[in-house]
Amino acid sequence: MSLKEKIDRDLKDSLKSGNKERLNAIRSIRAALLEKEVSIRVGGTAVLDDDQEIEVLASLAKKRRDAIEQFTLGNRTDLAAIEQLELAVIEEYLPEPVSDDEITDIVREIVARTGASSMKEMGRVMGEAMKTLKGKADGTKVQLIVKSQLSL
């Protein structure tokens, strides 16, 4: 079952159950995926591949995390709670996140393979690491680990 089919099925289930918060979150996911499809469409129809779908979902998750942080700082716990619910629904469709140890192992392997030895080569290491970890790890966390590995 494709991600789009799963989202459509979950949308129907949410409509039937009357869970409005989940329904709104799934609708926003569908809208973001459709918007991405339209933006890449050239002279007809376009279908997103798995990487593009994960990219859209990761972007939505990052936006929700940022909003939660801002609402919490602004003492708007009511709005932060709504964003938290939406984030939980988005994360259901994302691949399982990797642990810090797994990220460190992947970064070490990339550093060894590329021969990177200084912070000047951080961009190359980050590029390869983010390709490998797309949708599975937060870019900020990966950046911290890359910096720690290159500063050894």
User: What is the β-strand count?
Assistant: 0
H-E order: HHHHHHH
Mean pLDDT: 90
CATH architecture classification of the largest domain: Orthogonal Bundle
What would the CATH topology of the largest domain be?
A: Hypothetical Protein Yqey, Chain: A, domain1
Tally of separate helices: 7
Number of domains: 2
Q: What is the molecular shape?
A: globular
N→C terminal distance: 45 Å
The assigned structural class equals mainly alpha
Multimer state = single chain
Radius of gyration from the alpha-carbon trace, in angstroms: 18 Å
CATH superfamily of the largest domain: Uncharacterised protein YqeY/AIM41, N-terminal domain
CATH class of the largest domain: Mainly Alpha
The largest pleated sheet is described as:
none
Low-confidence stretches: none
Q: Helix amount, in percent?
A: over 70%
Taken as a percent bin, the fraction of beta residues is: under 5%
